Amino acid sequence: MKKFVILVGIIIAQNAFSQEEKCGLKKSDFNIYKVGTEDLKCLAKNSDKRNTIFFTFASWCQPCLYHLPNFKKIEKFYNVDSYVLLMDNEGSERIKSAVDYVLKDYPEAKIVILKDREKKNGRKYKDFVKEITPSQYEVITDMSKYIVLNNSGEVQLVTNWKDNKEYPQWKDDTSTIKRIVLPLLEKK
To answer: N or C: which terminus of the chain carries fewer CB neighbours within 10 A?
Structure first.
């Protein structure tokens, strides 16, 4: 039984890594793939799933910490590729704590990091949010976003804090997920 589980894990890892290879992604100092807007689209296009979902995360972001379990639940019931998208600078020590935090409870999680900009103007995340957000959505640079792309690489949804209308308590994003994220996804 252990050999079967190991074999399945290797096959899953090979599939995930082949997507990154097809997109020509490079690794950061912490051995995780660096991505930008076009890389997210490439990963979605090269997925064998109908949708790819990214969750913006940083270990210092309180909503991110509360919402990560709900994000990880999605892949249990829906046919999606899911990635945790880290926001800190590529060489930051904060990355290590974010990776450790995610992998502690989700050892199979796919983690990528937003590429640093050549000019360190402090706008890396703001610029990314402007690039990735479709014109029909308001550009809000909060964290703990769900970014859903279809397998054509088209961005279907970028959430923000205003989407959590039913619960004035920011700790629970269940209603947002049920109302606007899950309808875009295919059940297993």
So the answer is: N
Domain residue ranges of the chain, discontinuous segments joined by +: 2-184
The architecture (CATH level 2) of 2-184 comes to 3-Layer(aba) Sandwich (3.40)
Q: What is the pLDDT of residue 170?
A: 81
Q: How far apart are CA 129 and CA 73, in angstroms?
A: 24
Residues 81, 78: Cα–Cα separation, whole Å: 9
Name the more confident of 170 and 42: 42
User: 52: helix, coil or strand?
Assistant: strand
> How many residues appear in the chain?
188
Whole-prediction pTM value?
0.86
Burial of 149 (0-12, 13-18, 19+ CB in 10 A): buried
Where does the pLDDT of residue 45 fall: very low under 50, low under 70, confident under 90, or very high at 90 and above? very high
Sign of CA dihedral 54, 14, 38, 94: positive
Q: Partners of 86 in the beta sheet? A: 57, 113
